[in-house]
Structures are given as C-alpha cells and as structure tokens.
C-alpha cells in the first residue's frame, strides 16, 4: 500500500479551472494505486483579503479572532476541492485541521504542531475516499482554532506524511480532536496497523522545482533534480522561498521524501531526500540572496561569561529569529557581537538591546541597507578552498563583505544591499552553477564499477535503506512533533585560531588573506568576520599542526594590506557544536546553549550559526567541562 500527500497552494486553486486541474492530479495518483491525502491553502489572495478586512475594523485585531478568521480561507478550499473531485467521478471527503486532530500549542497566528491523530484519515482512506485536509490550521488543548503562520500549509502536508508513515510502525491515533485531559493524541498501539510501502509528499506550486538560485534574479539558474534535506534547509534559511524551513525540518526528522513540482505541468520536479554519497562530490549546489536583512552590532561589550547569553536571551524573548551571528575574539577586555535579523524586526530588537548595552557600557548600531549572499553544498565538507573561491569572486566584482559566517555546508556574507544582485550572480558563475552537474542535468557518477547512480533521478534518488527507528523515541517525537530535536553535542580540540584585527573595510582584503592561506595547502574551517568602529575583525580556525604556518602566511598577506593590521594565534581553543533539526526556527536554542555555558562561568570567544548547528569557541582547558554541561542541558547522552 502506497500513500502520497499532495499539497496545492493558493495560486494552484485561484479559479475553478485550476481547482479542477489539481483534482485531476489527485485522481491520477489514486488511479496509479496510491491512497491520496490532499492538503490545500486558501485560494488566491483570500488570506490577504481577510487580513485587510480585519484591518478596516481595528488596528490591533486579537490574535485568537484572527485565527478564527484566517482559517476560513482553507475551509473554502477543502470544500471546493472535494466537490471538484466528486464531479470527476471519484469519492472525496474534506476535513478541517481540528477534525483530523492536528493539535498545536496556543501561540495564535504562529502555532507549532504538537501531535496529529491518524484515525479519521485512515478510516476515510480505507473507505475509498481521497482525503482533503485544510492546511495552515489546527486546534489547541482548549479547543480553539489556531493557525501555523508562514509556510503553514507546507508544514501541514509534510507533518501529515510523517505521521501517516510512522503511525504504521506501531503508533495509532486515539481519534480526532483533543483528548479531555489535554494529553498527547498518539500512544503505542498493541495491534500495529498495516504499514505503507511508501509515503511521499508532493508540494505543488507555481514553480517547477528548486533552482541553483532564483531564476528571476539569474536567468541562467538551473533546476535541480535532487537535493539533500540539509542543503534545502540551508537554502530555505537564506532566501530560497520555494519551501519554508519548518516543513523541511519535518521531512528530515521523519524521513519523508518531498518533491517540489509545478501545478501547471506533469514534469518531474525536485526531490528533497536524505544525503547520498554522490552529493558530497558537488562542492556547491546552490546560491541565494536575502534582500531584506538588517545588521545589528553590539560593540565593546565586556569580554566575560554570560554577556552573549544576556543579549540573545533578550532578543529571543521577543520571538525574533536571529540569522547570522558573528562574535569575533575580544581584545583589551572588550568584544563586539554582530548579528542579523529580518529588516521588519530591527526596531523591536534595538528597543530591547539599548538598555542592556547602556548597562554594559557598550554601544548599539544597525544597518538596514544590507543583503545576505550565501552558497550551500554538501561537498564543502570534503573540498578545500571554497571560501577563498567565493571571496575572490566577490572581490573581482568589487563587492565588499561586511560580515562572514561559515557552517558545515554553508558560507554566508553580508554585503551592501545595492551590491546584492551583483554578488549573487558573481558567486553563481564562480561555482559553475549554470552548467550541468550531478543532481542538475547530469547523472550521478558510478560507484564501484556499478551503473551510474540515480541516472534517471527517479523517486528517492538518494537511495538506501531507511534507518530503523526506535519505537519509544519515535513515539516521543510524534507526541511533540515540532519541538527542536538536538541530535548531538560535539567537542573538537584539534584546531587553532588565527585572529586579525584592524583590517581595512575594503573589497578584496579577506580574499587576499585566504588566497595566501589556501596557497599554503591549509584547510580553513570556522570563519567569523565582524565590523567594529569601521574596521574588520577576522577570526578563522585551522588544524593545529598548520597553525604556525597559517600565522606566518597571514602576517605576510596583511603586511601588504596595511601596517596597522595585527595578527595573533591561539592554539588553546575548544570548539563546541550542537547539531539538530529546527535550530533556527526555534529562537531559544542558542539562548539555551549560551545560558548553560554562562552558568558554568565559561566564556564564549567566537560564535557561528547555521540551520542545523550552532558552534562556539571557548578556552581549550574548559572544553570537556563545556561539553558535559551542554549534553546535560540538551539531554544528550
């Protein structure tokens, strides 16, 4: 038995003709022998029209009543879709989020899913229906309607695929709605259900897949046939608006293959799947631009334990999602912390931070005329010189970098907003993303003399058996579906750090340094660049055996830049990494990490963040203690 969850967005349901086209896709899937669940968004501009209507009545509509209002858009869509399928001769039944038991927390307008019952959907499928479910909505423990916020329908679709897939592995819903005691709606079932052979999720939208970059910005962009969960998470966080991060988090956490495809054709789209070995041969799979970022700098803060925690605790308390964080090594007892937030939230963040900065004897500044350019690729784990290549491309294009952060498979730089598009196209060209390559127009290479892997990029192109799942752990995850999942805490003590202070804020200066280091055959890992008082502060880590060589090369390079630049090295550092799913969309993860270290009196000298990990550097002697306290804080064995 096979199941597919199909999601249709607002543009796919804009009028009767498009609704009928979506209905035909659902019916064809059923005729192919699959059971079908369809998740729909509100039609066209319905949500915007409802918001505008509310604003005509009051400037501050209550969040609870907004959820009641906005949920009606999807209810219109489910009824129309059921009618369309019925008119084409197939049986269909529509359900609201509450009717199928999508239980959320009580954060109105941006609720998070806690659990989902499968009983009513399974019964309807068994009765031969195509099941139509309203996306974007659920119900809390009090029986109130809630909505899921941005990307809510995608999130609903992937969450339904996840719970339907794994409920067949020993978990059964207790029935629709909310249990009277407010408890979880998923518990172990002594009589396991018939498992699905396959469960997929198809996201139908107005684009035909995921591209190497936004084709509206770079017409030479190439469609990808396949991309890993982690790569898609990182691209989603840096401006690839095809899918929201929350839905990809569900897909990764519960091993759900997702295909993004066009509502207006039958062409294959892009599969988002577990990482395959061939993907690591592709250095960079995509690039993205976030136009509306704002940079906040908290300058000259005391370089002591607890300061970072205090700053990000205050920001998280206002539910502001922080993106890039760059804390460079302090000097003379003071340090500077730079980070970015959505431009729409910069004023709120500044209001929170100014009193704290005044108390710490620090200053706060902001820049709303910035954009973020990022490259992403699983191959960054095993290929050297990637940062150097990116920085050289930007320097050649005359683009200055205001901030740099690196992660396992992502490098992001902050540039002037006026330079954003030029920077994106420069890096897209530098990494040959317009050319065919595995996963984007070219078969993956053969392994061990076998035929070329995934030559047709058919479903599940990453291949391989899915990992076995511990029932108790799986049940716990299903009963708190959207909680952040920290999978590991790691300690690395095999690196040293180079610190460059007073670097002129000009295009090409960082590139010159990394070109010199790369020419010495040295692998650079963590990179953090920040601006303070008009000067750049650059820190990067290298393997300890290469530290002295890297120091000499950096000093030679900076001497040609400006005699006022100072360079130092530290071999006594420890790097702590938290790995997980939902790191960025949950504002409290970094706060929890920084707080745990602060309570132990452990100072943080560098910070770097990404979608799937948060990294900090501390004094090397305290590395083991820091590891123990973070494992305790995140309950990781």
Question: Could you please describe the fold and organization of this structure?
Answer:
The protein is of the alpha+beta class and about 625 residues long. Helix content is about 30%, strand content about 30%. It contains 16 helices and 32 strands. The strands form eight sheets. The chain has a ten-stranded antiparallel β-sheet. An eight-stranded mixed β-sheet has the order 3-6-2-1-11-15-16-14, with helices on both faces. Helix 10 (about 385-395) runs antiparallel to helix 13 (about 510-520).
Largest sheet: 10 strands, antiparallel
- The helix fraction, in percent, is 25-40%
SS-based structural class? alpha+beta
The total count of helices amounts to: 16
In total, how many beta strands?
A: 32
Identify the overall geometry.
Answer: globular
Rg (C-alpha, Å): 25 Å
Biggest sheet, spatial arrangement of strands: 18-19-17-20-22-21-27-28-26-29
Report a brief summary of the structure.
The protein is α+β, with helices and mostly antiparallel strands and 637 residues long. The chain is 31% helix and 29% strand.
Descriptors for this entry?
eight-stranded mixed beta sheet; 32 strands; alpha+beta; 637 residues; 29% strand
Describe the protein's topology.
Elements: E1 2-8, H1 16-31, E2 34-40, H2 46-57, H3 63-87, E3 92-95, E4 102-104, E5 113-116, H4 119-126, E6 130-134, E7 137-139, E8 145-147, H5 152-166, E9 171-173, E10 186-188, E11 198-205, E12 210-211, E13 223-224, E14 226-228, H6 229-237, H7 245-253, E15 258-262, E16 270-273, E17 286-302, H8 307-316, E18 325-327, E19 334-342, H9 346-360, E20 363-376, H10 386-396, E21 403-406, E22 410-416, H11 420-430, E23 437-438, E24 441-442, H12 471-478, E25 485-492, E26 495-504, H13 509-519, E27 527-532, E28 535-543, H14 547-561, E29 566-570, E30 573-581, H15 588-599, E31 606-609, E32 613-619, H16 623-633
Parallel strand pairs: 1-2, 1-11, 2-6, 3-6, 11-15, 14-16, 23-24
Antiparallel strand pairs: 4-5, 7-8, 9-10, 12-13, 15-16, 17-19, 17-20, 18-19, 20-22, 21-22, 21-27, 25-30, 26-28, 26-29, 27-28, 30-32, 31-32
Helix pairs in contact: 1-3, 2-3, 5-7, 6-7, 8-9, 8-15, 10-11, 10-13, 13-14, 15-16
């Amino acid at each position: 038995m096979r199941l597919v969850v199909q999601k249709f967005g607002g543009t796919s349901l804009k009028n009767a003709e498009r609704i009928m086209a979506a209905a035909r896709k659902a019916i064809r899937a059923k005729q192919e022998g699959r059971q079908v669940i369809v998740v729909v968004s509100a039609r066209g501009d319905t949500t915007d029209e409802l918001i505008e209507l509310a604003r005509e009545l009051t400037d501050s509509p209550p969040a609870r009543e907004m959820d009641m209002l906005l949920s009606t858009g999807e209810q219109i869509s489910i009824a129309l879709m059921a009618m369309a399928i019925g008119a084409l001769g197939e049986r269909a039944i529509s359900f609201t989020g509450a009717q199928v038991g999508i239980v959320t927390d009580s954060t109105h307008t941006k609720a998070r899913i806690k659990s989902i019952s499968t009983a009513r959907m399974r019964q309807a499928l068994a009765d031969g229906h195509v099941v139509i479910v309203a996306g974007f909505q659920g119900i809390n423990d009090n029986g109130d309607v809630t909505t899921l916020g941005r990307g809510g329908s995608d999130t609903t679709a992937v969450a339904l695929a996840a719970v339907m897939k794994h409920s067949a592995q020993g978990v059964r819903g207790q029935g629709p709605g909310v249990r009277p005691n407010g408890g979880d709606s998923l518990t172990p079932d002594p009589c396991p259900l018939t498992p699905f052979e396959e469960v997929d999720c198809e996201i139908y939208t107005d684009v035909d897949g995921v591209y190497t970059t936004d084709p509206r910005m770079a017409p030479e962009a190439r469609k990808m046939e396949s991309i890993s969960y982690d790569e898609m998470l990182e691209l989603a966080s840096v401006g690839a608006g095809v899918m929201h991060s929350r839905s990809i988090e569900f897909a990764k956490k519960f091993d759900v293959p997702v295909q993004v495809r066009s509502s207006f054709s039958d062409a294959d789209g892009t599969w988002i799947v577990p990482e395959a070995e061939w993907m690591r041969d592709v250095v960079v799979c995509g690039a993205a631009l976030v136009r509306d970022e704002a940079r906040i700098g908290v300058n000259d803060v005391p370089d002591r334990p607890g300061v970072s925690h205090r700053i990000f605790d205050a920001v998280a308390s206002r539910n502001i999602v922080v993106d890039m964080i760059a804390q460079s090594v302090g000097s003379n007892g003071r340090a500077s912390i730079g980070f970015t937030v959505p431009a729409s939230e910069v004023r709120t963040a500044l209001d929170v931070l100014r009193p704290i900065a005044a108390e710490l004897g620090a200053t706060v500044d902001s820049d709303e005329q910035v954009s973020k350019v990022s490259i992403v690729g699983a191959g960054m784990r095993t290929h050297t010189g990637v940062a150097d290549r990116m920085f050289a491309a930007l320097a050649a294009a005359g683009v200055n970098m205001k901030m740099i952060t690196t992660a396992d498979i992502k490098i992001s730089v902050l540039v002037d907003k006026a330079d954003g598009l030029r920077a994106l196209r420069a890096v897209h060209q530098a990494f040959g993303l317009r050319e065919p390559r595995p996963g984007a127009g070219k078969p993956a290479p053969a392994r061990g003399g076998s035929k070329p892997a995934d030559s047709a990029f058919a479903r599940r192109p990453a291949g391989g058996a899915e990992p076995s799942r511990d029932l108790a752990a799986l049940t716990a995850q299903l009963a708190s579906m959207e909680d952040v999942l920290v999978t590991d805490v790691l300690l690395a003590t095999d690196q040293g750090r180079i610190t460059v202070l007073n670097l002129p804020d000009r295009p090409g200066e960082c590139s010159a340094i990394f070109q010199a280091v790369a020419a010495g055959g040295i692998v650079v890992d963590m990179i953090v660049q920040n601006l303070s008082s008009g000067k750049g502060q650059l820190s990067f880590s290298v393997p300890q055996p290469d530290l002295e060589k890297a120091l000499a090369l950096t000093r030679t390079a900076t001497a040609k830049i400006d005699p006022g630049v100072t360079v130092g090295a530290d071999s006594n550092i420890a790097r702590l990494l938290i790995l997980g799913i939902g790191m960025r969309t949950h504002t409290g993860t970094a706060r929890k990490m920084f707080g745990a270290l602060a309570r132990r009196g452990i100072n943080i000298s560098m910070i770097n963040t990404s979608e799937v990990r948060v990294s900090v550097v501390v004094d090397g002697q305290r590395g083991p203690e820091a590891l123990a306290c973070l494992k305790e804080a995140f309950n990781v064995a």
